[in-house]
Amino acid sequence: MFKNKVVWDSKSAIFVLSILSAIPCSFAANDSNGSEKNFKIDYPIPEQKQISGTVTDTDGMPLPGATVQVKGTNIGAITNFDGNFDLTIPGNENILVVSFVGFETKEVSLNAETNVIIVLQADAAALDEVLVVGYGTLSKRRFTGAASSISPEQIVDIPVVSVENAIIGQVAGVQVQEVSGEPGSSPNIKIRGSGSISAGSDPLFVVDGIPISKNLTSVNIQGNLARRGGSFQAPPVNPLATINPNDIISMEILKDASSTAIYGSRGGNGVVLITTKNGTPSEEGVFSFNTYYSSQEVANKLDLMNAEELIEYTRDARNNPYVQDVPGASADDPIGPGERGNGNYELPESFLNWDGTDTDWQDLIFRTGSIQSYNLSYASPIENNTSYYVSGGYFTQEGIIPDSQFERYSLMLNLDSQLTDKLNLDLRIAPSITENQREPASAPYFARPPGIVYSALVHSPTVRPYNEDGTINQTNNQSHLGAGTTSASNPLAIIPAVDDNLFQFQTRTSLGLSYELIPNLTFKTFGGSYINIYNRDFYRGNTLLFRESTEGESYAQASSSTEINWLWENTINWIKEYDNHFINAVAGYSMQKDNVTVKQVQADNFPDDLVTTISGGQVFAGSSVKEQWSLLSALLRVNYSYKDKYLFTGTIRSDKSSRFGKNNQTGYFPSFSAGWRINEEEFLSSVDALSELKLRFSWGQTGNFEIPNYGAIGLLSPLNYNFNGNEVNGLIQSTIPNPDLTWEKATQTNFGIELGLFNNRLFLLADYYETINNDLLLFVSIPSVSGFETTLQNIGEVENKGFEVALRTRNLVGEFTWETNFNFSTNKNEVLSLNANNEPIFSSGSAGIRHITRVGDPIGSYFGYVVDGIYQSEEDIANSPEDTEARNPAPGDFKFLDVNGDGKITPDDRTVTGSYFPDFTWGITNTFTYKGIDFSFLVQGVEGNEILNLTSRHLKNGEANFNSYAVFNERWRSPLEPGNGSIPRADRESGSHGNNNRPSSFQVEDGSFIRLRNVTLGYSLNTKDTFLGGTFDRFRVYLTGTNLATFTDYLGYNPEVSNNTTSALTPGEDYGTYPLTTSLTLGFNLNF
C-alpha cells in the first residue's frame, strides 16, 4: 500500500526521539526495499535567556528556599539565603511560578525583564499558628486563654542540662530561677507566683502526652546526711534533665485556668507542654548533626579579706570586747588563753607570727569546667503513609568544682503511620540514662560532709593548703580567735574524701491509635508509661577530718528508688466547620497509677577506704518504703467561634484521687473563657494598620495534686516495747486520719488583650490576673487529749495577682533585619488567711527561726529584728530604747527598731525583714540578621527580691572566728571612724553579747540584678550553592556566651540563690550554694 514504508528499527527510534527532544541529528534509515538512505534533521534551537531576581515577603524580607519554576516545565531553581536566584530558560517562556511554604503561590509574567523582584503575600490560612493545648491543638487566633510558646531555636543554641534553663528571661509570667550551678541541677520554676504553702508550686510538665512530676521521687532518695543533731538535705535531682533539648519541636506554657483546667487537680501551678519532633513532610529525609563545646568558669568570686586585713580585723575583734568587759583592761595587754565571756582570746600562731601566706581558697577549689554535646537525628519523609524521627544524643558537663560531673545518654524513636484511610498510629519511645557525680558543695561548713564552697569561704588566708610533704593540711587550720573553739575542714580534703554517685534510668513510652468514626469525628486511645529508676551510692571516707578531730568519720549510704507510672486515656474529638461556625469538642476519660519503692541502707565505722560499699562497714540503719497513688478522671472541652470573631471555650474535668479523704476524693474543675477579635468588625475594616485586636476573658478553677500519698489516713509506725524483760516489736498509730481532706483549689480570673499592627510587625500581648488559692493543706494544732499534737487540714488562703506584657517588634526588614522581644511581669503574693486564729507559721530553715508566714505578707517572709543604725556613743545608747536582748551594748553595736513602740527592744519587735518574691521581672532579646550572619543577645532583670544571706552568720558577723567579706573593712572603729555607717564594730563576743549576730535585717540583702544572659553570633551557609559541592543542605557555626555579666549589690555568688527549693516556707537562703558559671560555647549545626 505504501511504496516507501519506513521500517521501525533502532535508528528509526533515534529519529523520532530526536524530533521529540528537539535535538538535531543525522542518520541513515532503510526504506521498504531494504536500501539505506541518509537523512539529516536540523531542528531549530530556541534562544536561551538568563533570568535573575529576588523573592521577598511584603516587608521586603528575603525568602530563602523559595521555589522558582518555569510554568509547565521542569526548569527551576531554589532561592539562596538572601532570597536570590539565577535561572536559564528558553527564550519563548515568559511565565514563572513562585511558591514558598506559608505564602500564596504566585505567577509572574516576565515580558522583557531579566531581573525581577517577586513579592509573595502571606497565606493567612497557612500562617495561622497552631498552639498545642491539652488533648489537642487549636489555632492561635481562636485561642482564648493565656499561653506562651517557645520555639526550638530558643533552646538548642544554649548550653544547658535541662530545657527549663533555656527559657530564662524569655516568657512573661514565668520565673525560672537558676539557683545553683551544680551539674545536673534543677532550676526553680514558677508560673504566676506560688499559691501553696505545703503542697509544692512546681508546674505540671507533660511530655508527648505523659505527665511528669518533679516533686516526689527525686527527693525521696536524697536522704538526710547528719549534721550535728539534725540533717542537711542535698538538692533534689531533676527528672527533666533526662530530656534532650535537641529533640523538642515546641513548648507551650499554659498559664491561666482556661487553658489548664483540662488537667484539673494538677493544673493549679500552670502546665508546660513539651512536644518532640517527628518525620518531615518533605520529599527527602533530613539528617541533622548538632554539636557544641563549652568552656565554663565561676561567674564571680566573692570579695573577701586578704591575710593582712583579716589579722587586723581579728585583733580588733579581740581588743574591743576585752577592753569593754574586763575592768582596767587595755588593748596593749599581753594576749592570754582567754575564755568565752572574757575577751582576752588567744590569737592563732599564724596571726601572731604571720609568714606572708595569703591563700586564695576560692582559686583552689574552682577549675575550668566544660560541656560537650553531640546529637545526631534523622527525620524521614512520608513513605507508604509512614514517617519517623530517630535520634541519639550524648551530653557531658564537667563542673567547676573538681570531681563534679553530669552525663546523659539519650535515644528517641517517634513513628507516625496511617494504617488505613481512617486508622492512624503514633508511637513514642524515649529511653535515657544519666549519671551524676556530685560533690557536697551546697552545704554549711558544719554539715556532714561539710560544704566545699562554704569551707573555702570561711577558711583563713593565713593557712597553707598543703603541708611541706605535699599532703593536704588538715590539722594546722586554726583560723580564728580562741584556737580550739571552732574551725572548718580543709575544702581540698573534702573533694577526694567524698563519693556521691547518682544513676538514673528513665524511659517514656506511648502508643496512640486514632480512628475516624465518621467525617470530623475521631476516637483516640492512648496508653503511656513512665519508668524512673534511681540509684545513689554515697561514701564519706576516713581521710576527712572534721573541725578539731584527729580521726575521720566514715559513713556510707546506698539508696534506690523505682517509680512505675502508667496512663490510659480514651478521647473523642469532633471538629466541624460550616458557614461561619467552627466547633471543636473533645471528651474523654483518663486513668493513671503510680507505684514508688524506696530502699535505703546506712553504714559507718569503715576500717579503711579500700571497700566503700555498705558491706565494708557496720550497718546501723535501713528502711524500705512502698507507696502508690491513682487518679481517675473525666474531661470535656468545647471551643466555638463565629466568623472567627466571637470566641468561646468551656472546660470541665473531674478527678478522683486516692490521695484524699474518702469523703472528698472527687473534685470538679470548671473553666470558661471568651474572646472578641475586634479587628474583624466592619467598623475597623478601614484601619489598614490594624492586623489583630483581640480581647480575652477567662475564669476557672484548678487544683494542686502534690501532697503526701497517705495524708488523709492514719498511719502506723514501728515501736518496740519491753515486755517481761524482752524487747517486743510493735506498732503505734503515728498520724490522725482526716476523711475530709481534699484538694487545694486555685480560682483564677484573667483579662487579656492582643494587639497586632502593620501586618503584625508590632505585636503586643498583655494580661492581668488574680488567683485565689484556698483550702490550703496545713498542719493544725489539736487538743493533746487526742494523743496527737497536729493534724493535716484544708485551711488557709493565698492570693497572687499581677500584670504581664509581651511585645514583639520587627524593627527593620529587608536584607538587614532587627527583631526585638520584650517581656515584663509583676506578681504580688499575699497570705489572706491561715487558721481559725490566723496564727503565724514560724519556720526554721538552715539556721534557726528566720522565716514567718503570716496574714498580709508573702509566704516564707524573712523574720527578725530591724537594724535602725549603729550606736555612736554611750549617750546614744542611753537615749535609745532599752535592748533587753543585748548584754552590755557598746558604741559600734547595732541599734534596733522598736517596732511595737513599747519603749524597749524585745522579741516582740521581730517582724518581716524581706521577701524572696520580686516586685517585677523582665527580659529583652534583640536579634539581627544580615545575609548569612545572625547576632542576638538577651538581657534579663529581677527587681525587688531579697536574699537571706546566711553566709553572713560567719562572713559578716564581726566575731572574726572565720574569714570575712571585705566590706567589713568599712566597719565602725570609733566615732571619728564610723565606717560606711552600716557595718558594726568587730566583737569576738558578739554572740554572747547578743548584739550584732542575732537574726536581723542585716543578713537580708537586696537580690535585684540585671544580667547579660546570652550573646550569640552565628553564620549560616546554604551549602548546596556555596559549600562542599552540595554535600550538605545547611551549615551553621555559632559562638554563644552565657551569664557574661551580672550587675547586683548582692554580696554572694548568685542573687537568685535558694538552698531549699522544695519548701515554700523557707525560700531564698544562701548557705554556700554551688556558684553559677559563665561560659563560652562554640557550636555547629549541620543538615544533610
Automatic annotation (TrEMBL):
InterPro entries from the UniProt entry = Beta-barrel_TonB, Beta-barrel_TonB_sf, CarboxyPept-like_regulatory, Plug_dom, Plug_dom_sf, TonB-dep_OMP_SusC/RagA, TonB-dep_OMP_SusC/RagA_CS, TonB-dep_rcpt-like
| Spans annotated as Disordered | 978-1002
Q: Could you list this entry's UniProt keywords, alphabetically sorted.
A: Cell outer membrane, Membrane, Receptor, Signal, TonB box, Transmembrane, Transmembrane beta strand, Transport
Q: Where is the composition biased (Polar residues)?
A: 992-1002
Q: Which GO terms describe its cellular component?
A: cell outer membrane
The protein's location, in the record's own words, is: Cell outer membrane
Q: Note the topology in the membrane.
A: Multi-pass membrane protein
Q: Where is the TonB-dependent receptor-like beta-barrel domain?
A: 472-1044
Signal sequence interval, chain numbering: 1-28
Q: Which Gene3D superfamilies match?
A: Carboxypeptidase-like, regulatory domain (2.60.40.1120), TonB-dependent receptor, beta-barrel domain (2.40.170.20), TonB-dependent receptor, plug domain (2.170.130.10)
Q: What is its main location?
A: membrane
- Where do the TonB-dependent receptor plug domain residues begin and end? 140-271
Q: Does the keyword Transmembrane apply?
A: yes
Hey, which family's this protein in?
Answer: Belongs to the TonB-dependent receptor family.
Q: What is this protein called?
A: TonB-dependent receptor plug
The protein's organism comes out as Gillisia limnaea (strain DSM 15749 / LMG 21470 / R-8282)
